[in-house]
Amino acid sequence: MTVMSEELLEALEADESGDLDAIIEQRRPEDFDALRSLLRLDPTVEPSHRAKAIYALGRWGDPAVVEAIQDLLPDVEEAERIGAIDALGRLRAEDALDDILEHVDDESVSVRKFVARALGRINTPRARAELSKLEQTDPSDYIRSLASKLLSRG
Amino acid sequence: MATNVRTAVANRLGKSGTLSLKKDVFGVYSNVIPPQSRSLLRQMELIQTKPLVRVVLVTVTDTAANKIPNSQPQRDLDNANTIYQRECDAWIYCQDTRTRDRPDLTVFDQNDCGGVVGGHVVSDDEDELFDLGRDLGANIVCYYVFSATAFGGCAAHPPGRRGFWVGSPPNNNPASPDVAFAHELTHVVGDNAHVSTPADNLMTKAKGKLVSSTLTPAQQTRILADPDMEQP
């Protein structure tokens, strides 16, 4: 069983992300394992803790968690889905492109915004081609403009 | 009294013309007003004799998608005022409020909440968010947002644009909803960091903090010395 430090538990309970940001900076393997253990749809995992674990692991930068986040993506509610897409983008998870693109037509502008941002961060030729499609075809002016801005960053 | 109110409001609060007692004198903009007694005499005393900090409230919505923060701004202002008046003998004036329909910012992206090595990295969304409400007459702006990653609030802000955001249930239900606004405001006013003691302090990270939350003398001093605290 994964042991969670008091410090990490407090960070997961906090209103602000500052404590979790500090834990990410320290990069302790035991914290990484504890956060990773929260990436499951299990009634024993508090959804807010899972959402914060996704936030932290997306910023930690270790691609070992990509598959676990991919697995969560189809089954989580919008707020967590956004967090998961954001995390995959921050992890530059090229292997997760198909999973991210499942949400490219999501009716929520918020979800599509994070899809565009993730594509911009992954920034492979395929990701850029998908961004280019968004730039031309998304029904939202804002998303088309965001895609254009992300493409122009190169 | 009528002349005195008009003069005091013009001199101290900078408002003139047709004045609304509710908005301009009491700084009450909400239609949902908590049942709290509001004395004009007490308000006049505050206006004429006590240090004040002005805030603007901006609520970010996506009306088409029905993403509207489930916030209680008047409760937040009243509770923060109760704490500031009791602990610092200062008060908070709501200069103005606005709702901005910005679907692009309803769920916004944050890189971090500051305080880590290298300081706060301002995200594109924060850059846009903290531009809102800058023309309304207060240096400090509170943003009520529908959702922001997984957290309930944050006072990290771009340089030169002081402010903070507060999340909304059910996505970002603050752990201490009664004083989340006061807590975040106090990160900005006086640049107050988190503390672990005393247990009833407003700036602890504890859940369920109440309007009875306290401030230490050092925190009070920093609040009163804040550049946006206007002396009478």
Characterise the protein shown here.
The complex is a heterodimer of chains A (154) and B (232). Chain A is mostly helical and 154 residues long. Chain A has helices spanning 6-13, 18-26, 29-36, 47-60, 66-72, 78-90, 97-101, 109-122, 125-137, 141-152. Chain B is α/β, with parallel strands linked by helices and 232 residues long. Chain B has helices at 2-13, 21-25, 40-49, 73-88, 124-129, 180-188, 217-224; strands spanning 52-61, 91-101, 107-108, 140-144, 147-148, 153-154, 163-166, 229-230. In chain B, a hairpin with an 8-residue loop joins strand 6 and strand 7. In chain B, helix 4 (73-88) packs across helix 6 (180-188). The model of chain B has no long low-confidence stretch (mean pLDDT 89). The A-B interface holds A 10, 13-19, 21-22, 24-25, 48, 51-52, 54-55, 59, 79, 82-83, 86, 108-110, 113-114, 117, 140, 142, 146 and B 62, 65, 67, 103-104, 106-107, 109-117, 147, 149-156, 167, 171, 174-176, 180, 183, 194, 205, 207.
Summarize this structure briefly.
The complex is a heterodimer of chains A (154) and B (232). Chain A has 154 residues and is mainly α. Helices cover 67% and strands 0% of the residues of chain A.
Pick out its properties:
heterodimer; A: 154 residues; mainly alpha; Leucine-rich Repeat Variant; 10 helices; B: 232 residues; alpha/beta; Collagenase (Catalytic Domain); 6-stranded mixed beta sheet
Shape estimate of chain A:
elongated
Sketch the topology of chain B as an H/E string, one letter per element: HHHEHEEHEEEEHHE
Structural class of chain A: mainly alpha
Number of structural units classed as domains of chain B = 1
Which structural class best describes the helix and strand composition of chain B?
A: alpha/beta
